[in-house]
Amino acid sequence: MELLPRSPAEFGSARYWDRFFCQRGPRPFEWYGAFPELCPVLHKYVRPRDKVLVVGCGNSELREQMYDVQMCEDIVNIDISDAVIRQMQERSASTRPKMSYLLMDMLQMDFPDAHFQVVLDKGTLDALLTDEEEATLSKVDQMFAEISRVLQVGGRYLCVSLAQAHVLKKAVEYFSQEGWVVRVHQVASSGDEQQFVLPVFVYVMTKFRKIPGSAAQILEICPEEQDKPMRVESVEQLVAAVKNRQHYALLCSQISKSPCREQVSLDLCDKESGKPRYTLHVVDSPSVKPSRDKHFAIFIIPQGRETEWLFGTEEGRRQLAASAGFGRLLTVALHREQHYEGMASIQAELSAKVMELAPPGLAARQQVPFLSVGGDIGVRAVRHCDSSPLSGEFVVEDVKGDGTCYFRRLIFLQNRNVVQSEARLLSPTPLPGQKKRRKDKKKASPTEPPGAIDKSYLCCEHHKAMVAGLCLLGGPNTLPGELAVLVVGLGGGSLPLFVHDYFSQARVAVVEIDPSMLEVATRWFGFSQGDRMQVHISDGLDYVAKLAAEAPAQYDAVMFDVDSKDLTVGMSCPPPAFVEKPFLQKVKTILKPEGVFVLNLVCRDARLKESVLATLRDVFPLLYVRRIKGEVNEILFCQPGPAGQRDPAELGARARALEGALRRPGQPWDSSYVLADMLQAVHIL
C-alpha cells in the first residue's frame, strides 16, 4: 500500500491526507516524538487551564494522552482532512467530552483573535515547508501569521520538528523579528528503536508585543541533558548548535551499528561557557577478539599528557587500545581551561554520555570500566597566560609526567596539541591536588618561586638530535672547540642553553622575532643572557640576509627551530620562506666551509617535503637526515661541501668522544642521552 506522496507539494493537499488516512485506517500515526519523550517539555509550557489549539492534528495520540493525564482538557484540534476529523470524532466523542475536532485550514482559521494560550504543532510545519520555493514560503508566512493572530500575548507556539536547517531558520527568523522569545528544546530519547535517527526538537515561541524600533532578539537552546537554557547571539548560531546535535545523533547511530574504520573525534563542551571540556576519540580494534567483559572501556588521559605520542596520535591511540585488549576504547582528554574534582566526578559526569558511543553488541547494563595511568587524572597547573600579536594566546603550565617527574611547558593555544617548549623541573612546586610534606605548619607563600629548571635535561628528542649533529664539526681527529653558533627560534630557550652550558667555548647568538618569548624564557624557563649568549629580537629572514651581506662565513653551526604560524600549510616547522632556495643560499653564505646547518623539519605533506629536500640538495652538497621515532620531526644536517662526509663508524666514534668531553666533573649529565644513539639512525640523502 503506497502512502507516500508523489511530490512534496502533496503534503499540503487535503486530498492526499484524506487518501492517506482512509488507506491507513484508525491506527494512530506518529511521525516522531512519542508522548513519554515530549511530556517533560510540554509540562513546562502547557497549563491545565490553557485553551490549546492543535494544528494539523492527524490521528496522533499525543493530545489524547495530554487530556488523559490532565495536562489540559480544553483542546481544539483542526485538520484539512475530512477523513481524519471523522475518525477522531468517533474515537474521542464519548471519552473526552471537552476535546473537539474541526475541519479547518490552518492558513485561514475561523477563530477570533487572541483566542488561545497555546498552539501545538507536531510535524505540521515540517510537512508544509518541504522546499524553499516562493509559493511554499508564502503558505508558511500565512500559517505563522494565523498562529500569531489567534495566540494571546504571553501565549506559546510549540512546534515539534526534526529541525531541518531551512525549517528552523525560517521559524526562528520570522518570530524573533516579531519580537517573540525563541527557545529550542532537544527532546530526550527514550532509548527505544526509533523510526528517525535524527533527534526531535520542540521550538517554543513565546508571544510578546513588538516594541517599535527594537532589534533585540532572545534566542535560546536547551540541550536534552540540562534544563537551563543557553543564550545564543544569532539565528545562525542557533541553527549551528542544532546542527551539531544532529551530527552527534547520526554519529552515535552509525557507530552503535558497526565498528569505526577510522578514529572518530568529538568535543563535549561545558554547559555554562560552551567551551570544550572533554575531547573524545573512539578507537576500535578489529583485530582484538574481546572477551565478554572487554567490549568497551573509557581511558582518561592524565592532564598534561594529551600531547604524548601514545595519547596524542592516531597510531599511539591504536596501540593503546590494542594493548588494553578492548574491542572499543574511548580516550578522554581533559582541557586546561576546565576544573576537575577527580576520577569519581569525571566518571559521574561522563557515564551517561559515553554509553551513547558504545559498540554494537554491548550487553545491557554491562559495567564499563574507567581506566587511567596510575588510576588518577594527573596534575596540571597553569603558571602564566598571555598573548602576543605574533604568537597569539599562549600558556606556561606545569604537569606531572610519567612517574615522579614534573615538566614545564609552553603551549601556543592556536595549536594546543603541540608542546612548543618543555623543560624538566628539579624541585616541583606544589600543584593542585598534590600534597607536600612540610616540617612546619606554615603555609607556602603565594610568591614562592617556581621549581628550578633542570638545564642538563633535553626533553625534546629533536633537540637531542640537533645537538648531536655538532659531531660533524671539527677535523678528522679533532672535536669542536671554540664554536660560533646561531640559533633561530628561542621558544623556552632549552636548545641554546644546552649548547651554551655544555660547549664551554661556544658563543651563541639567538634570533627571536617575538619579544614576548624572551620574557617567557627568562622568567619561566631559566634562560639568561651573558658574554657568550646574546638574543637578537628580529625576523630570522632579515637577520640572516643582513649577515650574508655584511659578515659571511662566520658561523660553525646554524640551527633552525622555528614554528610556522600558518596552520593551512602542511609544514608546521619551519615557515616555508625559510626553505626557499634564495634564503638557503644566504644560510650557506654565513656558514664556515666546514660548518653545519641543522634544520628541524616538520612536514606532513609528502609532496611539499620532497620539494624541500630537493631544494636543500641543490644548495648543500652533503645532506644527512635523522628521523625521530614516533614523531613527524626530521632533523636535517646540511654541509656546504662534500669533504665533510663521514661514515657511520666514524660518526659513532666522534659522538662517543664528544660525549666524554662534555661530561665534565661537577656538570650534571642526563644518563639517558647518548650522543652515539642519536647518530645511529642518521643516513645520507
From TrEMBL:
Feature: compositional bias, Basic residues: 434-444
Cellular component terms (Gene Ontology): cytoplasm
The family this protein is said to belong to: Belongs to the methyltransferase superfamily.
Keyword Methyltransferase annotated: yes
GO biological process, one term: methylation
Annotated Pfam families: Methyltransf_31, Spermine_synth
GO MF annotations in UniProt: methyltransferase activity
Region of interest called Disordered, as start-end residue ranges on this chain: 424-450
SUPFAM superfamilies: S-adenosyl-L-methionine-dependent methyltransferases
Organism of derivation: Acrocephalus arundinaceus (Great reed-warbler)
Gene designation per UniProt: Mettl13
Name of protein: eEF1A lysine and N-terminal methyltransferase
Superkingdom classification of source: Eukaryota
NCBIfam families: MFS_SpdSyn (NF037959)
Key words, A-Z: Methyltransferase, Multifunctional enzyme, Transferase
Family annotation (CDD domains): AdoMet_MTases
Domain Methyltransferase: 50-171
